[in-house]
Please model this.
Amino acid sequence: MRIEKFTYDNKLTKLFMYATILWGFVGMLVGLTAAFDLIFPALNAGIPWLTFSHIRPLHTNAVIFAFVGNGIFTAVYYATPRLLKTPMYSKKLGSIHFWGWQLIIVSAAITLPLGLTQSKEYAELIWPIDVAVVVIWVIFGINFFMTLVKRRMKHMYVAIWFWIATWITVAVLYIVNNLQLPTSFLHSYPIYAGIQDALVQWWYGHNAVAFFLTTPYLGLMYYFVPKAANRPIYSYKLSIIHFWALIFIYIWAGPHHLLYSALPDWVQALGVVFSVMLIAPSWGGMINGLLTLRGAWDKVRKDPVLKMFVVGVTAYGMSTFEGPMLALKSVNALSHFTDWTIAHVHIGTLGWNGMLTFGMIYWLVPRLFNTKLYSRALANVHFWFATLGMLFFAIPLYFAGFTQSLMWKQFTDAGYLAYPNFLETVTQILPMYALRAFGGSLYFTGVILFIINIRKTVVAGKFVRYEEDQAPALEHDAHGSKENLQWGWHRKLEGKAIQFSVFAFIAILIGGAIEMIPMFMVKSNVPTIAAVKPYTPLELQGRDIYVSEGCYLCHSQMIRPFRSETERYGEYTKAGEGVYDFPFQYGSKRTGPDLAREGVTSLPNYKPNSWHYNHMLDPQKMNAESIMPPYPWLITRNIDIASTPAKIRAMIKLGVPYPKGYDKAAIADLEMQAHEIGENLRQSGIKVDDNKEIIALIAYLQRLGTDIYKDKE
Amino acid sequence: MDNEKKHLQKKDEEYEIDTLTNDRLIKGHDYDGIRELDNDLPPWWKWLFYITIAFAIIYSVRLFVFKAPDLIQADEYQNEMASYQASKAVAKANKAFEVKLLTSDADLAKGSETWHKICAACHMADGGGLVGPNMTDNYWLHGNTVQDLYNVVTNGVLAKGMLSYKDQLSDKARLEVVSYVLEKLQGTKPAHPKAPQGKKYK
Model:
């Protein structure tokens, strides 16, 4: 047996770790700002990029792709070489990966607050950045898979399995959900519309949680928990079963984001049953994490790293039990569109992702800098800030979600909505929003302590760039035939990186394909409604403004089939109504009322043009207690009229039945309709020009949901 | 017999014992110092998985084979609305309602509450008007009697953006708010009164 010597380079691990800390700080600070925006709507000071609807996507993207993303890469670049006994394949690819990823984050941080967005949650980035993401992801993939090829360990450890599944699935999800038709360098339309777009988006959105926030962090857990505790993994068999079950089942669960929507019953049912079947595979990970600590519980009491891991893994267990419960239709009828979902997500992110990241870095830094952690006591204080912060964040929001939902559904004895004014249900829960901001502040304070501690440790130590190691050279297939353990077939597979990856690829394709292909191929899934017509050019421009301003982040456009919703908002939303909606605007949260039928004059939510004008300018003038931020720039900014022909041409390409050559006539139609609305506003004593964004937005709002009401009016 | 013995012997060779838990470590499973135990799946975990799979099968059969009405949302909605319509018919049978100005403090307080929750969005809290007309002056677009105002609130004036509130507010609630306008808002001095609209009444 030939022993080979080789060297690990810690430089990229260090860089990714610093990036994790930096973007964690930024992403959470933005989140905190968003939390305060909700309590003090005037906090945006009339500045678009400080407004909730602009910074909420920045917060989610920053904490997911920048904080957790860099956390994943820190773990992968540190653990993969050590688990496989070989350095990472290429330093150059690693550097391109690192700097490319940071550049993507910076460009996201610039474009999202400016309102350059696709409006698909966690896939908001505009198409040029999407292209960059795919390129960098492929570079990461080459570097990672080539390291597998070059490995000296015959078998791949379970952490590596999870990272293989992560890379493959994220690539598939990201590309499929981001297929789009550009109309300019900064703008595009997705190739899917309405309910089909929604299904693709939530297949992506749910599995971004699964394969970006969960599987790579399970890999992280499988390396750093046994390392930090110096204990063996509880059960190899459990690793095998829960890995395959998890990646196969997770991909089906997306439709649970669209329960009681216009999605056909059969797809909803698949979303429900696969979500429920996810409990055990998820808990498999929790068990393997927690029970690995058997025999080390005395250490857990003292060691902040292990404490964080325990709370993190427990939070994972809690939120993966809660998730399937929220996917039951009867629970979802209550929870959907409320703050309950926000609370649920933050148990996962603050608990699982946050705690695991902090624990990993507290463990890594002394090793990377050949020193001791500056202060164990400070890390313990951080632990308590983080734990209490998480609880103060989540518990008030559970209460808020529950309260608001019951108020929405409450009827008086006489059969009227008990709270016909949506705003009443908002003011009721504002104290809970304040408590949430307090919880967020606690958590963020913990992060500041963390940064101080890490900084002091780094300064006290000296960076260990290279570490020597040695291992026997890998002899291919020398032992293959000898393996006949109970799980021999799987053991063999662990020795074959390519076959393993192919099986994982097949496992994650099945669910999505079975749910999505019939939605596109079988007409009965999206029944045609003859009354539904394409948007006018002005409405289309208004719709793009609605998308750009992020209205969907607080206003849904999906009336669910409940009496409490149809009484409040009108006829429930049908699949056939969305066929020209590129992208769909169903939304996922109702901080304000649903707008799906905002334009229907016979419904309770209808407002005249002048109301909309005054309301965008100064919402508190219309409703003193409203928490909607002001959007005064809509009144001064001009509609980008010149973009109209390109947009119409893109729509025609996507199958919207505008007459042939309509792109040339569109501007004239736009100006005519804008003039009508302008005149109407001027009659109400409002001084406004026809070419302002507010005119287009009003045109869109007054069109919303009206098509199927045309016969009734 | 011989084979089994061999097998057991072989098993022993493949394991070591973890001294802290007395569980068996799998030989040869050592990744950067991380070992793996040969523990079986916890039985309760297996049962949890089986039960959720059983749930999935039953749920699917109920929907796909038996078309259970509680899993088909269009049916579910129809049932909900039908049971409501039935209860409404009963409620309608015992009502006698007269449109007559209310003056009691309790009624006017309720009227005020409705005014601030709903009407103030367009007519402003002090009644001075903004999108909707001024309610404090003595100019009226659609008449100034209790019945006139009640009709406007009930049926709306859609052409001008005034909604119908008959499905949102009970008969009593509409009468309360109309009474509030006539008793409390009329003749007050709002901060920013909208210019008079309609015909002046004496």
Residues 2-37 of chain B form one domain. Strands of chain B lie at 15-17, 24-31, 34-37, 139-140, 199-200. The radius of gyration of chain B is 37 Å.
